[in-house]
Amino acid sequence: LVGTLLMRVLVAGWSMRSPASSLHDAGYNVTAADAYGDADLKIRGIPVISFEEAWRQRARYDVLLYGSNAEALVEAFPGIIRGNSVSTLRRLADVRVWFDFLDRVGIGFPRTWSSAAELPDNVEILEKNPSRHGGAGVRPWTGGKIPRGSILQEKLDAQSFSASFFSSEGEITLLGVTEQLGFDREISETLHVPGYAYCGNILLRDWDENLLARLSSIARCLTREYRLVGLNGIDFIMGEDCEPLLLEINPRWCASFELYERIPGFLPAVAQIEGQLPPVTALPVGAVGKAVLYAPDPGVHVPADSLKWLQDGMADIPMPGGIIKPQHPLCTVFAEADTRDECLKSLLAKAGMLYERLEKNHAC
Questions:
Q1: Biggest CA pair distance of the chain
Q2: Could you tell me the strand order of the sheet in which 200-204 lies?
Q3: Which of 14, 83, 311, 319 is deepest in the core (most CB within 10 A)?
Q4: How far out from the chain centre does Cα 152 lie?
C-alpha cells in the first residue's frame, strides 16, 4: 500500500469518474483530468484539473491511465502509460487500414465506404467520424461531401453490443459482453439521448459459448496484430444469425468497464494500473446495468440537494446550483437483477423517478 500511495497517478479523459474513484478508494494518489468534474470526485477529495492543466503539469505524474479525448496527452506524457502505446493508437487511428485488415483476416463488419460515389441505392447509411468517441460522431447520412476523417457505413437492423477483454503478451482474457442501450429508440427517448450518444450498458452473465469463443478469437487476432495490452473493448452488432459484425475497437478506458466491478475482487482500474489481471470469477447476478440520463429541454437547474443523489446509488452527480444544458449528461443510475429485462426495467424506473422529481421541483 505504501508504494501505491507514493505513486502519482493521472487519470485523464472525457469522463473518468469511475476509474479515478476506484483507484482513490484502493489507496492510490489520484488526480483526475475530467471534462465534468462531478461531485463524486470532489466529495472524495480527488483533485480535478482541466486538460490544459494536465498538459502543463504532465511531468509531475508517474503514471497515466487514459480514456477518450486524451490522445494529445498520451503522445506527450513522459511517465509510464498504462494501456496501449502511442504507436498502437496511431495505427488504429487509420480506419481504412483497420477495415482492410478485418476484411483480410475474415472478421465481419457492416459494408463501409469512403466515397459517396460507391454507395448502393435503397440502403440506410450512417456517417461516422471515428475520432469522436461515445457516439458523438455518428449521424444519418444525408448526402453531400463526406467530412474529412469520416466514413459511411450501412445501418443494419441489429442489436449493438460491446465485449471487454484484457490483453497481455499476445493472449487475452474475455471479461464479458454488454448490451448497449443507445440503439433502442424507446430507451433513447426516455433518457433524452441526443442522436447516437452513449447512454449505458447492461452486462449479462450468461451468453452462448459459441459466441464467446468467436469473440475471444477476434480479440486474440486484434491483440496480436496491434500489440494490444491491458483493457480493451470492441463494439459490434449482431442479428438473428448471432454472427458478430465489428464496428470499432476501443483501445482505451471504456465507460462499460465499471460494470465489471460487480465481479467479486475485481477492480478494472487497478488491473489496468498494475498491468496484470487477477483471477476473475463469474458475475454473481444475471444482469448489471448503468444508464446515463441526459437533460431534457430546456435544460436542468441542478437542485440544492443534488448530493443526496449519491445516497440513492447514482453517480456522475452535478454540483448543486449548476445548469445542465439540454441533451448534456445529467447523471448515471445503476441496477442489477436476475434477468436483462428486469434490469432494464429498473434502470428506466429510476430514470423516470428522477425526471419526475426534477419536474415537480421545477428544475427542468
A1: 63
A2: 244-250, 230-238, 159-168, 171-180, 200-204, 287-294, 329-337
A3: 83
A4: 22
Q: Say how far apart CA 266 and CA 120 lie, in whole Å.
A: 47
What's the Cα-to-Cα distance from 331 to each of 289, 306, 335, rounded to whole Å?
Answer: 14, 10, 14
CB burial of residue 113 (10 Å; 0-12, 13-18, 19+): middle
- Is CATH 3.30.470.20 the right assignment for the domain spanning 159-360? yes
Checking DSSP bridges between strand 151-154 and strand 125-128, what pairing results, if any?
antiparallel
Torsion of CA 244, 247, 251, 252, to 10 degrees: -110
Quote the pLDDT of residue 2: 46
Q: Where are the domains of the chain?
A: 2-82, 107-154, 159-360
**How far is it, in rounded angstroms, from Cα 342 to Cα 337?**
6
Q: Which amino acid is at 177?
A: V
Q: Which CATH architecture best describes the domain 2-82? A: 3-Layer(aba) Sandwich (3.40)
pLDDT along the chain (364 residues), means of 10: 74 96 95 92 95 95 95 95 96 92 96 85 86 74 82 91 97 97 89 93 96 98 98 94 93 97 95 93 96 95 93 94 94 98 98 93 66
Tell me how far apart the alpha carbons of residues 355 and 294 are, in angstroms, rounded to a whole number: 10
H, E, C per residue of the chain? CHHHHHCEEEEEECCCHHHHHHHHHCCCEEEEEECCCCHHHHHHCCCEECHHHHHHCHHHCCEEEECCCCHHHHHHCCCEEECCCHHHHHHHCCHHHHHHHHHHHCCCCCCEECCHHHCCCCCCEEEECCCCCCCCCEEECCCCCCCCCCEEEECCCCEEEEEEEEEECCEEEEEEEEEECCCCHHHHHHCCCCCCCCCEEEEECCCCHHHHHHHHHHHHHHHHHHCCCEEEEEEEEECCCCCEEEEEEECCCCHHHHHHHHCCCCCHHHHHHHCCCCCCCCCCCCEEEEEEEECCCCCEECCCCHHHHHHHCCECCCCCCCEECCCCEEEEEEEEECCHHHHHHHHHHHHHHHHHHHHHCCCC
In this structure, are strands 300-301 and 323-324 parallel, antiparallel, or unpaired? antiparallel
